[in-house]
Specification:
Elements lengths: L3 E2 L17 H15 L1 H9 L3 E5 L2 E6 L2 H23 L4 E6 L20 H6 L3 H9 L28 H12 L8 E5 L5 H15 L5 E5 H13 L3 H9 L3 E5 L8 H16 L3 E6 L11 H8 L2 E5 L4 H15 L12 H10 L4 H18 L5 H7 L1 H7 L5 H12 L3 H5 L5 H17 L4 H7 L5 H17 L2 E6 L2 E6 H14 L1
Parallel strand pairs: 1-4, 3-4, 5-8, 5-9, 6-7, 7-8
Antiparallel strand pairs: 2-3, 10-11
Length: 505
C-alpha cells in the first residue's frame, strides 16, 4: 500500500467534525468522487466510513482499518486523484490514516454506510495480525513500557493441525510451567503459517492467567530501532534495564538482525542475562537459525540450544477449519454455514490455496466484499468466478522448498550453505540457480526471493538471474566439485535436469 500510515496527532475524531482544509473543496472532491464511482459504492465505502483532510499537497483519508484502506486504494485511487485534480487543479499525494474511532463506534446516523456491508464485517475484516501491528505502531514504546495492548490473537483461536501441533504444544508447555523445559523456544516457518499468531497468543495467555509476569513483546526491528535510539540519546542503560529485566521476552522476525553485528552483540548479552536469570525467551523467524545468513555463530549456537520447531503449511482439514473460523469472525451467520459461506465454498478455497493462512483469508475477504457490493449470496459458482484471478496469482507452479532441496542435492551442497554468505564457486552457482528457478516458477518478487535466500538484496537476485540467463543462452560449460568428484555439464543440460527433478516432486 502506497501510503497507509497511523498518525494520531492529525487524526480527525469522526465524520461529523470539521475537516481540515477548505470545507467547500472537501465537499466538492467528495461529490466529484461520488459521481465517478456511483452513489452506491460511494455510500458503502466513503460516506460515513472515511474522513478527508486536505493540507498543502496531501489528501489524507481516514479509514477504520487496513482492509478498507487497501480496498479503496486498489479500486478507487485513480478516481480520487481525478476528483482532486478537477476541484483543486493539481494532484495531491493520497495517504491513509487508520482511525480506530471509525470502526465499531458509529452513531446511528452513520450506520447507513454499512447497509450492504455487515457491521460485524466492518469490525473484523482486517486480519488480526495486521490490526495488532497497526495498534502497536502508532508511536514508539516509552522507556519501561510493556506491549500490553489488546492482543486480538489468542491460543484459543489458533487452529491446531498436524502441521503446527508440535509448535502449539511447545508454546502451551512454556506458558504452563514457571520454569520452562526449554529456553529459548525458536519457532520458524514460511510466510503466513501462524508463527506470529502463536507468539502473540502466548503473550495473551500470560496476560490472562499469569498477570504478575513481566512480559515484553516486540519485533526484532523494534529492538534494533530502540537500541540505536538509546545509543543516540545516551540512554543505553535505560534500554538495557527494560529489556533484560523482563521475565518473558517474545521477539518476532528475529532474522531481521542479520547483517547487523552491533545489534546482534547487544541481543546476545540481553539473551544471556535473561537466560541466566531463569527467565524465558521465545523467538520467531522465517528460517531455521542455521539458515539465517550473516547471523553470528554464537547467536546461532544460543538459538539451537533450546527447542527449534518448524510450522509447516496447513493441511487440507486444517485449512478448512481456518476458513470456517475466519468466516464466523467476519460475518455473523448460521452456524451450519460458517458465517454465511457455504461448506462447498470453504472446501473449494481450502483445496485451491495451500500455502498459507493469509492467502485463505485474502480469498474469503474478496468473496465477502464482492457479496456485499453486489448484494448477492456467496455460492460455489460465484466463488469460482470471483476467485479465478486470485487463485492464479497465489498458487505457485512449484514450491520454493522443492527448488532449494533439488538444487542443493544436484550440486552436492546443503540448503544452509545456499542461504549463507559464502562465496565459494559451487555454492554461488547453486545459489544463482536457486534464485533463477524461484524467479521463473513462482510469483515471488526479487525482494521476496532475496529475503528468503538469507536477506540478500533484490539487486543481487536480479544479477544472479541475468547471469544464469547468459549461461543458458551461451550454453556454457559448468564445472564443479560434487560428492562423487569433478563434474562438467553445459548450462542447458543442468537446467533441464533441475526442472525435471522439481516437476517430479
Amino acid at each position: 500500500m502506497q501510503g497507509t500510515i497511523t498518525d494520531e496527532s492529525s487524526r480527525i475524531a469522526g465524520p461529523r467534525q470539521p475537516q481540515a482544509g477548505d470545507s467547500s473543496e472537501i465537499s466538492a472532491i467528495q461529490q466529484a468522487l461520488a459521481e465517478k464511482i456511483g452513489p452506491q459504492k460511494y455510500r458503502i465505502w466513503f460516506k460515513s466510513s472515511t474522513t478527508f483532510t486536505l493540507t498543502d499537497k496531501y489528501l489524507r483519508i481516514g479509514v477504520p482499518n487496513l482492509f478498507i484502506a487497501g480496498w479503496i486504494e486498489n479500486h478507487f485511487l485513480s478516481q480520487i486523484d481525478q476528483a482532486v485534480q478537477e476541484v483543486t487543479g493539481t494532484s495531491a499525494k493520497i495517504t491513509f490514516t487508520v482511525d480506530p474511532e471509525l470502526s465499531g463506534h458509529q452513531r446511528p446516523t452513520q450506520l447507513d454506510s454499512t447497509a450492504q456491508l455487515p457491521a460485524e464485517t466492518k469490525n473484523r475484516l482486517t486480519s488480526s495480525k495486521t490490526q495488532t501491528r497497526v495498534a502497536s505502531s502508532k508511536r514508539p514504546a516509552a522507556p519501561g513500557a510493556i506491549h500490553r495492548g489488546r492482543l486480538k490473537l489468542t491460543l484459543d483461536t489458533f487452529v491446531v493441525g498436524p502441521s503446527n501441533e508440535l509448535a502449539y504444544n511447545a508454546a502451551k508447555a512454556v506458558i504452563k510451567e514457571q520454569q520452562s523445559p526449554f529456553n529459548p523456544l525458536f519457532i520458524h516457518g514460511g510466510y503466513g503459517v501462524g508463527k506470529t499468531h502463536l507468539l502473540r497468543g502466548m503473550c495473551h495467555e500470560l496476560s490472562k492467567h499469569r498477570p504478575e509476569t513481566n512480559w515484553l513483546y516486540l519485533s526484532a526491528e523494534d529492538f534494533a530501532n530502540q537500541f540505536i535510539l538509546a545509543l543516540k540519546t545516551k540512554k543505553l542503560e535505560v534500554f538495557r534495564r527494560r529489556m533484560r529485566k523482563t521475565s518473558f521476552l517474545a521477539i518476532d522476525d528475529i532474522h531481521f538482525l542479520a547483517n547487523k553485528p552491533s545489534t546482534q552483540e547487544e541481543f546476545f548479552h540481553t539473551f544471556n542475562t535473561i537466560n541466566l536469570a531463569g527467565k524465558q525467551v521465545v523467538l520467531v523467524s522465517d528460517a531455521h537459525p542455521k539458515l539465517i545468513a550473516q547471523l553470528s555463530e554464537k547467536l546461532v549456537n544460543r538459538f539451537v540450544s533450546g527447542m527449534v520447531v518448524k510450522i509447516e503449511p496447513p493441511d487440507f482439514q486444517t485449512r478448512c477449519e481456518i476458513c470456517r473460523q475466519f468466516a464466523r469472525r467476519a460475518i455473523r451467520g448460521p452456524k451450519s454455514a460458517a458465517g454465511g459461506i457455504p461448506e462447498s465454498v470453504i472446501k473449494y478455497v481450502a483445496e485451491n490455496l495451500r500455502n498459507n493462512v493469509r492467502e485463505l483469508e485474502g480469498a474469503l475477504l474478496k468473496l465477502i466484499a464482492y457479496s456485499a457490493l453486489q448484494n448477492v449470496k456467496i455460492t460455489l459458482s460465484m466463488a469460482r468466478t470471483v476467485l479465478i484471478e486470485h487463485l492464479e496469482r497465489c498458487d505457485p507452479i512449484v514450491h520454493i522448498s522443492d527448488i532449494e532441496s533439488t538444487v542443493a542435492t544436484y550440486f552436492g551442497v546443503t540448503p544452509a550453505s545456499i542461504h549463507s554468505a559464502k562465496k565459494d564457486k559451487i555454492i554461488a552457482l547453486a545459489r544463482h540457480f536457486s534464485m533463477y528457478l524461484i524467479r521463473k516458477h513462482t510469483k515471488m518478487s526479487a525482494s521476496e526471493i532475496g529475503r528468503f535466500m538469507g536477506n540478500k538484496n533484490h539487486a543481487t537476485v536480479l544479477m544472479a538471474c541475468k547471469k544464469i540467463e547468459r549461461l543458458i543462452k551461451q550454453n556454457a560449460d559448468l564445472h564443479w566439485q560434487g560428492p562423487a568428484g569433478n563434474k562438467i555439464s553445459n548450462a542447458r543440460t543442468v537446467l533441464a535436469h533441475l526442472e525435471e527433478s522439481i516437476a517430479a516432486k
